[in-house]
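Tutorial sheet, problem 5. The two components below are modelled jointly, 1086 residues in total.
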Amino acid sequence: MFIDDTIAAISTPVGEGGIGIVRMSGKDSLSIAEKIFRSFKGKNIRDMKSYTMMYGFIIDPKTNEKVDEVIISYMKAPNTYTREDIVEINCHGGVVAVKKILSLVLQNGARLAEPGEFTKRAFLNGRIDLSQAEAVIDLIRAKTSESMHIALEQTQGKLSSKIKDIMNRLLGILAHIEASVDFPEDDIENVVSSKIIKDSREIINDIEYLIKNAETGKILREGLNTSIVGKPNVGKSSLLNALLEEKRAIVTDIPGTTRDVIEEYINIRGIPVKIIDTAGIRETEDIVEKIGVEKSKEYIEKSDLIIFMVDSSRPLDDEDYEIIQLIKHKKVIVVINKIDLPLAIDLDVIKSNFKEENLVFASINTEKGIEDIKQKIEDFVFSGEVKSKDIYVTNVRHKDILFKAKESINKGIETIELGLPLDIASVEYKDAYLKLGEITGDTAAEDIIDRIFSDFCIGK
Amino acid sequence: MYFAGSYDVIVVGAGHAGCEAALAAARMGCKTLCITLNLDSIAMMPCNPSIGGTAKGHLVREVDALGGQMGIAIDNTYLQSRMLNTAKGPAVQSLRAQADKKRYQEYMKHVLETQENLTLKQDEVIELDVKDNRIVGLKTKNGAYFECKTAVITTGTYLKSRIIIGDVSYNGGPNGLFPANELSDSLKALGISLRRFKTGTPARINRRSIDFSKMIIQPGDERVIPFSFMSDNIDRVQIPCYLTYTTEETHKIIRENLHRSPLFTGDIEGVGPRYCPSIEDKIVKFPDKERHQIFVEPEGENTEEMYIQGMSSSMPEDVQIKFYRSIPGLENAEIMRTAYAIEYDCIDPQQLKLSLELKFIEGLFFAGQINGTSGYEEAAAQGIIAGINAALKVKNKEPLILDRSDAYIGVLIDDLVTKGTNEPYRMMTSRAEYRLLLRQDNADLRLTEKGYKVGLVTEERYQRYLKRKKAIEQEIERVKKIVLPPSEEVNDFLRRNNSSEIKSGIHLYDLIKRPEISYEATKEIDKDRPDIPFDVAREVENQIKYDGYIQKQMQQVEQFKKLEQKRIPEDIDYNDIQGLRIEARQKLSKIRPQNIGQASRISGVSPADISVLLIYLEQLRRKKGE
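Model answer (structure tokens):
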């Protein structure tokens, strides 16, 4: 709980639009920006005047790599929305860049804003009229219950059980150090530094794994890998065009991939989806025997989601069966196309191989079923893991927490390796535990004490 | 009933809380009365014969730094002294001294008897007189009525106490003394909610019946560090303790007789402390542990009674005799006092303010074990604060509230008042967020100024503090200015201390920061080092060596203080605040936190609730400004 540290958030809608803004508010805004910004003309950001902009690049200070080309605007307190120093980073790389810039800002000293926090600060600092107070409270309440809802869903998820496992191991380290500190004369097994370092490293590995693999986070960073498969002429290209809608302009050929396979990024309800159109393979190689099963397999393996298209006006043939065998173990949406034509397909075969709820009946040419397909894609991304538009923020929050917890454990190891007493390192471990507790709602002091008494026989 | 006099402050009870409360109030110039059931039980230690220990030693030093008596009393009457955790960091090192129980009591009683403004009386307080939600007086068993402006209740474990020894149980206070059976009902009638806690103590055995050759001797430290900042050199001959262990036979006897233990038959309803389990508890909960440590400690110089630490029990007497005698060295043990469990009434401390005054009765303060704590040191810590605040109340001044970044005392009281406790509360260093700042070695630097401001710290103590503070600051300044050259002498010194050599000049200050280099050792390369006292040198070293960690915690404290300084008006009505969740509303209404920081520590109050509360307070402020 802080009231005047520096907060940051993405202030543009996620996943939509070509530009994004990362906003910071608080006294360290400018100095945080300084760490990650290089002016195009070599100017110093510290010399910026209030209400001016500067053009340059965001770089990752650890690798010195350019992240994006940006314009920074600076508004000096008190004449700002929050009455605190505000820095806004306008970037134009879409989702990937905005997200990367936000995490750089967080890694360099900012804290992710709580729901409604910019407005809250505006009010507390006298910027907003008294009559708006109720609205501020409503905003905090509404956003909090929304994110609590998400948090609740996540506590039942895999991520949460993994984090609880990590916390449990951290607590084991903490309780051992603390028991030996608070009960030096009790018969407690010696705390061995090398064991703590080994355990800490294992915990760090697990945290890093979580950071990398927080699944939805990955989807949002790289796009949901989706392959459209099906034999020729079932309507794959039509589906692709239909999904692209008027945003056709953003379609790009990603260089470096097989020329015959097209990867296209589209935005479906805020989710970046990378669609691999395998149609290309077939059309350049007209011999059916040379389908290049291996190549198709490779794409199917890489995909998070398969859209399998069949033509309902034709019976299933060997080619369909072959594809069914290839994709059976994947997450699949089956699009049964051309339902405006007389039905010739054996639906029972489809139903015996795929879940009924994943079937979509469509007639792409008449735009029937397109919305259903989009809905299915969205359901897939958010199923059981996350929900609603806050998914993005929530994951940034988790990543931020995981990152900061990792940093604390690293400092703990450093402290021990320097030869300083364990009770000093334990301060760092406690920090890490408290950080992770922000995800699960656990608090340190009582947890440690409970653990001491359950792990060790203590007392006069 | 007759009118027996009028006092500014009346302290009920003269245990470790009562003594500090009475002395503090009297020393601050209030006309003070201290009433106790038995004058011979002033400052009695009914359990272990020692003062201090981890975190508890910190509390004693803090009480001392504020101008309390406990530290001076133990420095005058200790039998053995040890600094615990010397292999660990400075923040968790704690003093513990074995006490000569009787001499400690005698010493403290005499201090109370000779204290100006303080009257001591043996009697039992049976009823509190409250008018218009304010304490105005109290009645005693002997028929006296005393008028008062404030009162401090420090009745320890005496309220409706019950002694349990196996299947035997009777109403009785600790150590064979009388219980106080009537005051509980008066408290209840005033609307104060009570609960029942339990604790226990081991047997006392005659030294002549113990074979020490089968035990390991535990001597005291060679260099004794005093508890009190007022004590100089207090070296004297120390009396050893002894270590032995339970045996398989001990565990067998206990297991076979578990059906006779009231803990397991359900005869004890009170909640006992987890850190102070009875021996039967330990054996049941940790069945794989082959043996448990038993420390045999002297109770005094002029007594043969020995305290058997680690073996508290509520087993029947005949079982006790058997299992005590199964321990190496105790085969022929002659038990002089039987181990017992004691159950007693205490109050739910969430009814108190941070000043230890009851929320709904003005002028009525509570301190010590009645607040649900355990330990002499925890009691003394609350006692001095309750005494100070009762006196400040009489003088119409703001109470002294120590927060979690000021002192362990602040952590203790905030925990009790804000979170409550489900078992007798014991202080532990892991309860303190800002542990690196709250060291036992700097208690005076943290608190003596505050004690001086409220008028408890004497001029003599204050001058000593100023002198020490200046000496520390000067030495650090001096060390900061010294640059050592990469000379052969310096590098030779570094080699001998297993430290890496230097190629260019280095500040002595930075050299002391190296974990392997002590301030003391650098004396040989620091030619102009002045002759400074041992305690000053230790403080200098700690402040330099842990500077980075200390700075980090100080930054955290800065954030913490901002929330702590946001006061919540006393008359706030949480039902008026739209947007608070019902649970938060109920908890806030019950605890009535005094500031936003305290509110944020209440379980069930979320950060969003705090945001709503902040906005409400801002609304209120602006409306008032209009």
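Marking note: Residues 61 and 83 of chain A are 29 Å apart (CA to CA). Full credit if you identified this.
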